[in-house]
């Protein structure tokens, strides 16, 4: 006999959690299905444990830049213990209990759609008026010769590592690759970072890529851009040997961080007429993929961030409740938690020009903010803005700067609300803060 719910959610990551939590608060009956850990990638293998691992060596680097301070040495055993606290020891019991107390029916089974309004979860058959797909992504594994024959890491193994490897090759110059490369280097690994494209962080402004490449190399990381890994093999000593271009690099470990692939296999999309694309499930402005079916989070391929997944979960639940909210992605904040942090929002200058905008840009050095001199010695960084001359508004902003993840949100609101440049120029930022860089850049825009 089938069990009836108003909504069945496939996946208990940020998107599924966002939808289920809001719907249950509206008095809707919800079943949330999860075949792995309830909570998804972020609390167990991604956002939370990695930021916990990054913080000790970031604090050490900050101390080295502050006159009169000694640089503390990280104690790996204690760092690892705290990481295991942050990721709950890879146990989800507390999260399951919390959702159950909210009234959500949590089913620890893989969910598969079997037809319109029908889902199978283990030996249970469920029916629902609406289905929300929030299955997320997996690490993308590139077709490199020999890769299947070696013991490589993805973000999961790296974030849960027991010991720091003496050396590592990191494939991928995106946010995950950069964060792990810098973190492991600061814990003592000899790091080689290999990126097939001609620069790191290809979607961001070229100035961001250039500055971050320079900073990583100054720290001793061997950054190789425009170089693809052609083959991987065991080095005969328990490590790996990577052939990249004309060179071979041997290391104790190999980390594959070239991107993510949507989890769309085995969830029954064909039974409801959905054919996913390379990036995932295509949805409309309401996060709807088909009649009675919504998709949220990374599986949509729109923007692979936890905050986007949560936002889409909210949008989908609003639409299920009949309020028809339209999703707006023009001001999605993007952060790499490197040191210094990289933060951006909206369009790069190149993207804005591709959309036919009359673009005006401005950049300022970190030295333009007096906070830099008080924060420490020899800080490097820049910030920039992208404006649409015709409308007189910001359409993008970026920064490579300490605490950029915190103060970029002034630009997020400006881009989202299309605040006039004249209004921004006439605003005040607290002195001394790095936020003054945004104001300085805006006042230099010729628009």
Structure description:
With 447 residues, the chain is α/β, with parallel strands linked by helices. The protein has three domains: 144 residues, FAD/NAD(P)-binding domain (3-Layer(bba) Sandwich), CATH 3.50.50.60; 114 residues, FAD/NAD(P)-binding domain (3-Layer(bba) Sandwich); 112 residues, Enolase-like, domain 1 (2-Layer Sandwich). It has 15 helices and 22 strands. Helix 1 links the parallel strand 1 and strand 2. Helix 3 runs antiparallel to helix 4. The termini are far apart.
Parts with pLDDT < 50 across at least 5 consecutive residues: none
General shape: globular
For the record, the CATH class of the largest domain is Alpha Beta
Tell me the name of the CATH homologous superfamily of the largest domain.
Answer: FAD/NAD(P)-binding domain
The average pLDDT score comes to 96
The portion of residues forming beta strands comes to: 25-35%
Number of domain units: 3
Number of separate helices: 15
Share of residues in helices: 25-40%
- Number of beta-strand segments: 22
Query: What would you say the CATH architecture of the largest domain is?
Result: 3-Layer(bba) Sandwich
Estimated structural class: alpha/beta
Largest sheet: 8 strands, mixed
Instruction: Please name the CATH topology of the largest domain.
Output: FAD/NAD(P)-binding domain
Q: What Rg, in angstroms, do the CA atoms define?
A: 23 Å
Distance between the termini: 66 Å
Notable traits:
FAD/NAD(P)-binding domain, Enolase-like, domain 1, 5-stranded antiparallel sheet, 15 helices
């Amino acid at each position: 006999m089938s069990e009836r719910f108003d909504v069945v959610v496939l996946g208990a990551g940020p998107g599924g959690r966002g939808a289920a939590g809001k719907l249950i608060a509206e008095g809707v009956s919800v079943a949330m299905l999860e075949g792995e850990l309830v909570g998804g990638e972020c609390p167990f293998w991604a956002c939370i444990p990695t930021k916990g691992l990054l913080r000790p060596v970031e604090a050490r680097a900050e101390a080295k830049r502050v006159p009169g301070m000694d640089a503390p040495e990280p104690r790996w055993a204690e760092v690892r213990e705290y990481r295991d606290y942050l990721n709950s020891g890879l146990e989800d019991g507390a999260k399951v209990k919390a959702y159950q107390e909210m009234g959500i029916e949590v089913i620890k089974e893989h969910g598969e759609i079997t037809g319109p309004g029908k889902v199978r979860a283990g030996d249970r058959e469920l029916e629902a008026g609406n289905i929300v797909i929030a299955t997320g992504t997996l690490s993308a594994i590139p077709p490199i010769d020999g890769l299947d024959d070696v013991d490589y890491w993805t973000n999961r193994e790296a974030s849960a590592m027991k010991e720091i490897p003496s050396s590592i090759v990191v494939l991928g110059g995106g946010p995950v690759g950069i964060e792990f490369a810098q973190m492991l280097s600061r814990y003592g690994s000899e790091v080689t970072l290999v990126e097939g494209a001609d620069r790191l962080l290809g979607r961001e402004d070229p100035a961001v890529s250039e500055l971050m490449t320079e900073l990583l190399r100054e720290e001793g990381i061997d950054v190789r851009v425009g170089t693809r890994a052609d083959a991987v093999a065991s080095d005969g000593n328990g490590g790996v040997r990577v052939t990249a271009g004309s060179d071979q690099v041997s290391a104790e470990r190999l980390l594959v961080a070239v991107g993510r692939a949507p989890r769309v296999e085995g969830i029954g999309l064909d039974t409801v007429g959905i054919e996913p694309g390379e990036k995932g499930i295509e949805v409309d402005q309401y996060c709807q993929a088909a009649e009675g079916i919504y998709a949220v989070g990374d599986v949509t391929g729109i923007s692979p961030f936890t905050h986007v997944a949560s936002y889409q979960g909210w949008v989908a639940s609003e639409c299920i409740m009949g309020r028809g909210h339209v999703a707006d992605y023009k001001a999605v904040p993007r952060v790499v938690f490197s040191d210094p942090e990289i933060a951006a929002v909206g369009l790069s200058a190149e993207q804005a020009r591709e959309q036919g905008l009359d673009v005006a840009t401005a950049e300022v050095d970190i030295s333009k903010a007096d906070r830099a001199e008080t924060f420490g010695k020899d800080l490097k960084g820049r910030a920039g803005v992208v404006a649409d001359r015709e409308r007189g508004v910001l359409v993008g902003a970026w920064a490579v700067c300490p605490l950029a993840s915190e103060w970029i949100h002034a630009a997020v609101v400006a881009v989202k609300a299309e605040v006039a440049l004249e209004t921004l120029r006439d605003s005040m930022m607290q002195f001394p803060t790095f936020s003054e860089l945004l104001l300085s850049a805006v006042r230099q825009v010729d628009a």
